[in-house]
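Sequence only, no structure available. Ideas?
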Amino acid sequence: MENVPKIELSKHEHKPLQVNPIKLSQPMGSALAFMGIKNCMPLMHGSQGCASYAKVFFTRHYNEPIPLYNTSVGDITAILDGGDYSILMAIENITKKNTTLKPELIGLCTTGLTETKGDDVRNVATHIEIPYCYVNTPDYEGGMESGWALTAKALIKQHTKETSTIDTDKLLLLPHASIQPIEVEKIKEFCESFGFETYALPDLSTSLDGYLSQNQGKLGTGAIGIEEIRELGTCATIVSIGSSMQIAAKALLEKNSNILHLHFDHLMGQEKSDNFVSALMKIRQNEPKASIKRWRGRLQDAMLDSHFLIGSSHFVISGEPDMCVGMCELLQSVGGTVDAVIATVYSSVLQTISAKNVFVGDLEDAVPYFENADLVISNYHAERLLHMQERHTGLILRGFPNYEELGNQLKNDQLYEGSTYFLFEVANKLREIKHHGNINE
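Reply:
I predicted one. Tokens follow.
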């Protein structure tokens, strides 16, 4: 780790504002997490604009109807009324308007307005019969990644029962915010192939996965319900994926100290996938299935095939820290040069990235590095900036938002299979870019 650069925060700290920001708010991350809970009603405690923006944002990104409600707190009501009243009235109005709406959990996340006032959101649970989970997620702190992680932690702390017994077959995945619905499904299936009864928290694999279902868009349709969350303390193994999710793992360990915790900063590339497989093999004392071995061989072949294109190229990556670290390491494993990583918020995992430049900032800070890059991996907002460059630099869209492409929820970059797809996508984009450059010359 001697060559790891010290994370630079000065570009972000000394700017009076963000220009072309890549950071998203904590309430958005929290709301998305609640969509990964079965029959959950995500409720944003703030003004109409907060929830309306988030709803439009996710609708355009996923091209799906989004279940998201809000308490419609205005400036005046925020001052005159208590938080309890606004929340209770919102729940009553929403459920009365739609009699078929029968939530099994109310998932409430706060916003900057209600956090500044200091509403007592905890006390609401004493006034409603529906199970209730609250998360303090002010807009002026953290980002999407931390909002998601705080929600997972809150669900465990507030609803999982304490116990000392474990079920040796039971495993819980704690995926970070940038892991797509199909990726959660693939990782769950991967664990199940070793004989685990696998759960994920939050679990978007059946919620925003592009599958049309009855009453879609009214409640979260995640693959884990409140009853299953209550019994998570009996899991023998926790697998946290992403540095941000360690707070949720710690919360579960407090419920049962006999649980084995396995942590991975990411599951991209051969090395991390091998480590994951080795850990599962050690627990289950069995060999991976033949299909897993074949995908490992395919990844090795993909690394060889893509080496000459990726190894001669320069990259810039921007996004959530847990997403950036995996992509950076995978590209470097086949010889790619990462000139800059621009993260949305600070995370200790950024200290492990060995790129030439690693810092917290916005797309304005990223532009100088675009000029020498062959390929940029960023969200949709980087596209118009790249069009202004004289050099023809390629773009692969990852993270939030992606308004340009369909099927975001079905993109898989994880484990042997997803890493293979990712390397080929990068190599093919580089071939297109370099071929375009040769024609112009």
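The chain has a mean pLDDT of 91.
Hope that gets you unstuck.
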